[in-house]
Amino acid sequence: MKKLISAATALILMGAVCMAAEPAVQQATFTVSVASVFELSIDQGFIDFGRMNPGETKWNMPPAGIMVQAKTNGGKPWHLKISNDSPFSSGSNVISNSNFSWYGWTSGSGKWYGTGENTVSITPALVYSSGSGEDNNLPEGTVNHMKFRLKVPANQAPGNYTTVVKFTMTE
After folding, report:
1. Phi-psi label, residue 15: left if phi above 0, alpha if psi -120 to 50, beta otherwise
2. Is the separation of the CB atoms in 102 and 147 below 8 Å?
3. Half-sphere exposure of 162 (CA within 13 A, CB side)
4. What domains can you pick out in the chain, each with its CATH number?
5. CB-count burial class (<10 Å; 0-12, 13-18, 19+) for 89
6. Separation of alpha carbons 7 and 5, rounded Å
7. 121-152 residue pLDDT tens
8. What is the per-residue pLDDT across 22-55, written as a single tens digit (0 to 9) for each?
């Protein structure tokens, strides 16, 4: 009988040890907030047509073009537009925007609006509309390459003429 009680006691103690070995479970909740990306960048901020004579036209400026890079993860179609604040001017002298045009090409899958005869305007004009897969084009983005043509009118007064061209990305 002592052996039976000893065996029963041993089984009870082993059961208590097994019960103490059951795992305890706790949970933690993890969160992350992914930032919205809506960026536009250009690789050159100053373009110099150099010295030009009245009646002269320069194409392919700058020679390598300007790279206009658009990046987004917003999930919506987007558009690239171009405009300037005012025509080229030097004091009260002006070179009309009808003498200043843009052209180029894109690495994207969307629609390119440049025909080679698009004049720069004070009113923003479409350059590019995003295409399939470009509503989230991270990390590389979509690159549009832009070049410009300027014709100095034959009777243009001398001076140092300046304009500011703006690139705008909208959804």
Report:
1. alpha
2. yes
3. 5
4. 38-170 (2.60.40)
5. middle
6. 5
7. 999 999 999 999 999 999 999 999 999 999 99
8. 899 999 999 999 999 999 999 999 999 999 999 9
